[in-house]
Each structure stands twice: as C-alpha cells, then as structure tokens.
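Input.
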Amino acid sequence: MTQHGKILLVDDDEGLLKLLKMRLVSEGFVVETATDGVQCLQRLDIFEPDVLISDLRMDKIDGMTLFEEVSSRRPFLPVIIITAHGTIPEAVEATQKGVFSFITKPIDKDKLFKVIQKALTQSGKQPDQQKNAWCADIITQSQVMLDLLKKAKLVAQSDSNILLQGESGTGKELLARAIHNASRRKFGPFIAINCAALPGDLLEAELFGTTKNAGNDQKSLFQAAKGGTLFLDEVSEMPLGLQAKLLRVLEERQMRAGGSLSAAAADIRIMSATHQDLEEKVQAGEFREDLFYKLNVIGLSIPTLNQRREDISLLAKSFLQKVASRHKPRVKSFAPKALELICNAQWPGNVRQLYNVVERLVVLSTTSVISESSVREALTPDTEELQSLADAKSEFERQYLIQVLRQAKGNVSQAARAAKRNRTDFYKLMARHNLQPAQFKAQG
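Output.
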C-alpha cells in the first residue's frame, strides 16, 4: 500500500485512538499513537511525524499546552486538534495561535482525510504539491486567500489584462508571478517595473525603448517581455502622456520605439497593480478612464494581512525558517508566548512588515528560540510602519462599510442608500474589501 505520510495520534480515549489508527492505516498512512502528551513528546523526535493530531481535552497535558510545546520543538509541524462541540470557540482561538485546523466530534472520516491531505500539502509532504507549484511561494491557509488563488488560476488561462488592487505590502507582485506561472506564457519572461520609481522620461524609455543613435538602440520592456508577461507595478503613478501611449499599445497590440516609424507586434500579457483607488484617480482626472477599463478587464483584490489573520503564524514560521537559513541557522523557533504576541499584533504594513520584523528578530537573536521580550520590543509603536494616506483611507472606507452594513443588517439596498451610493458602486466597494452581506445578516 502506498505510504501517504506519517501521523502521530494523541488521545487519552484508547477506544477512539484505536479506531482512528485503524482508519488511517487503511488509507495508507503510517501511524504512531500516544495516550497522553508526555508520551507524545517522547515519541516526537524519534517518529518524526508529518502531522500531529491531538485531542483538546486530556489529563496531564491538554491539547493546547501540548501544541505550544510541540511548536517550540517543531515549529513547522502541522497540528490538528480534535474537539467536542462545546469547545469550538476555544478551537477557533487555537487556529489563530497557529494550530493548523480542528475537527469536531463525532469525527467525520472524509473531513478528517481532507484536512490531513491539506496539512500534508501545506507542509510540502505530498506529491500533489506539484499541482500547486504555480503558487508555491504564496503561503496561506486562509479561505479568503484560497478563494482568490482559485480565481487567479482560472483567469491565468486567458490572455486578458489583469489589475491587482491591494494595500502596500500585501504581495501583489507575488500573485502576479503566480498567475504568470499558471498561464500558457509561463516559459516566457516575467518582467516587472515599478512605475513610481522612475521619472516619466526614463519610464517611457524603459517601456518603449529609444532609437536616438543608430546602432545603440535601447531595447524596450515590451520587446524584452515578448511571449511572456509585463507587470506594471504602481501603474497609478504613470504620467498622463505615457498613459496615452500605453493605451495605444493595448488597443493596437503593436508598439513603436521612441522616434521609430515602424511598429512591432506586442506579443505580451499586461498585468498591473496599484495600492490606490484607480476609480478615484479617474474621477479626479489623474488617470485615463479608457486605460482603466483596458487594464481592468479582470480585477483581483488582495486582502490585507489583518483580513487573513489565520495566516500570521504560518507566515511568521516560514519567514523565520527562510531568514535563519540565510543569516543564523541556529535560530530555530519562536517561544509560544512570542508567537502569540505576533499573532495578536496589528500589521498595517501587511506581509512585508511581518517579514521585516521577523528578519530583525532573527538577525538580533542571541538564542535558538526567539523570546517573548524580543518580540515585544520589536512591536513597539516606534518600529511599526506608518500607513500611507491611501492605506489609511482604505482602512477608513472598510470600517465605514462594516458599520453601514451592520446597521442595515446586511440589506445592501438599505446600506447603499445610507451611504448615498448606487447599488452597483456599493457592491464594488464591498468586493474591494472582501465583505459579504451574509456576514451581517447573521449578526442581525
């Protein structure tokens, strides 16, 4: 029988333990059992499981205490908690602290196998991981991100232009690269340029090239990206004159270098990104409306880190491993309380800020385990990134929408009237901030 992975089961109910082992072994898993947390910790390093499954309520060491101890020893080991219905709130809180998932009693066999497979895939133990190689650099277990990746893989199959919108630090370029990797253009180049990093004349020269001196032509990024993808980051910062030239390329699928009379086919896919509200820029006359519609054939909105908080622990551990391997291999993990502080912190700078904080913690660490006090110092207000005006406006807009929808108990028509917006605009605003009317109907 095919080996699917190694699982360590922990439960003080020996009857349930035997039943679960029998089910898992029949599916091809290699299974070890422990009747309490002490036995589990004794077998952890010897058996080296790929997944740990533990009951929440046990004598001697309960499930969460066991998780914290296991996490300090094996920070990247997925832990699944088994819980009774009455302890579901505790289990939900546990996932925010880094527990991979939880299963309620009575245990549904199919659901259990599905969660185990997901844990194995996430930890890189499953051959099926190759199916997700296109987005392997995007670390997530958040449903909102998983839904976004499903949508991204679907749109990758076409050559339609894509506009990625999201706050600074959310990983727009990372998602753009993933979409490129899932597309038929994956064997072609992926070329990125930050439109805010160059003055207009230099940006134009980079995009369209020059023909000022014979024999000394500058190759354009449109030419360099032939057969692949050109990613225009912070496209909202492109000067209006250059926007007109970009529009012509998108309409004619041809481009001319500066000063050239001949045109060449533009065999590329355009993806662009911005942390600003492009519709507001259009209304203010700072961005061409026709170009906006050309770029925004398919729009994808990337959630903030605070909207996918269940990923914070997973990301922090992954970043620690990555940074430590490069700078300080002896740094192995976070102390449980240190990880809890990270999970409960606000992250206005999103994933980028979390990475920077973890990098600082690893570089400055003098021990193999990063302490609670080190994290507390790193999270002082002086070290937090200041939000940009656009990010602050976006956060205000989201909180305003939440308040209006809460008062309207999820009735979109009523909420739109209160906000003095038409229903279509209001639905767009909700989509931008990943808000669903059903969330507020339930609260109502």
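The chain has a mean pLDDT of 84.
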